[in-house]
Specification:
mainly alpha, two-stranded antiparallel ribbon, two-stranded antiparallel sheet, 4 strands, 54% helix
């Protein structure tokens, strides 16, 4: 209880901002078709060359320039859309990359958002178990504490926290700092006035400079709920899909909920992927789907694989320090 109170006093546990801080990103390599002699020349005029530009959508053909591409569009449109859809489907349902590791304890970062924290001092995302361990060892006794990774003094006041984030945005062009500050504007946290349009602007900037999962999840949520922008379920789904391809389990779970009413198998596939990454709600959804009509939407083998993979993922994210942090949060709730 003493540890819980100390961490709360130093701001490591706060009820000020309930919007999840998307602080974990993965890179994703887009699927490419192998080249062949058939696409070494312009599909419109037949010119050969090393500087031809591949069709960005389907990867099937190449062109000399935009003029040739535009001229060939009527002939190519149907095949292009078909192959582009196939490539997107392959990327969307490919098992995403695993969680990044906490740079202090080297265990996979938790997928439960309050169990990890973005550090504006160094731009790292740390598990809260490492903060717990540092507090327990007496390493955070000064006001604001110190970062378990870089050991720099952590900002303590609302103004200092926002200033530090803005500094990383300006000096480092840190995409995740944009996302975190955007979440503060959504809630009106840390002394900022609530401004959903400003948050949307920050999320858009973050996506443009490289945040795959966090920014696109936030943009999807904005479009889905109409926060700072007009509601648009189609655009919401687009951004959720980008985030899911990058490994965001919340985006993947949301896609399952969106797909399940029209295409049950697709919805279940989304849930299986996120459940295998350790997402509890997705696992419960998979169980419900399997128990309702066994073998109809997923096979017994898929169900068993999902159960084992979920357990392995959850076990891989566990540690004594993280369990202690969970207890600290319970005492402060």
């Amino acid at each position: 209880e003493t540890l819980a109170k100390a961490m709360s006093d130093y701001g490591y546990i706060s009820s000020t901002c309930s919007v999840p801080q998307r602080t974990h990103s993965h890179s994703h390599s887009q699927t490419m078709m192998s080249t062949s002699d058939d696409i070494s020349k312009c599909a419109n005029c037949g010119k050969f060359g090393d500087d031809l530009k591949r069709c960005n959508a389907c990867k099937l053909v190449k062109y000399c320039n935009a003029t040739c591409q535009k001229a060939h569009r009527p002939k190519h449109k149907k095949a292009c859309r078909k192959r582009a859809s196939e490539l997107h489907h392959e990327a969307l349902f490919k098992q995403p990359p695993p969680n990044e590791d906490c740079p202090v304890c080297f265990l996979p970062l938790p997928i439960f958002l309050p169990a990890r924290k973005y550090q504006a001092c160094c731009g790292k995302v740390l598990c809260m178990g490492c903060f717990t361990a540092m507090f327990a060892a007496g390493g955070c006794r000064n006001e604001g504490g110190a970062c378990p990774f870089c050991r720099k003094q952590a900002p303590y006041s609302d103004e200092a926290i926002v200033e530090k984030l803005c500094g990383r945005m300006e000096m480092k062009n840190d995409a995740e700092a944009f996302v975190v500050l955007g979440s503060y504007y959504v809630e009106g946290a840390y002394g900022l006035r609530k401004d959903e349009e400003k948050a949307f602007e920050l999320y858009t900037r973050a996506a443009a400079i490289g945040s795959i999962t966090n920014a696109h999840y936030a943009l999807g949520t904005s479009y889905f709920n109409g926060q700072g922008v007009e509601k648009d379920k189609k655009k919401a789904k687009h951004h959720f899909e980008i985030a899911a391809i990058g490994g965001d389990v919340e985006a993947r779970y949301g896609l399952g909920n969106m797909e399940i009413h029209a295409q049950i198998r697709r919805g279940v596939k989304h849930w299986m992927i996120s459940a295998r990454a350790g997402h509890d709600k997705s696992l419960e959804a998979v169980k419900t789907a399997y128990n309702s009509l066994p073998g109809e939407f997923l096979t017994k083998e898929e169900f068993e694989v999902t159960l084992r993979a979920h357990k392995d993922s959850v076990d891989g994210m566990k540690s004594e320090q993280r369990d202690l942090m969970a207890e600290v949060r319970r005492l402060n709730s």
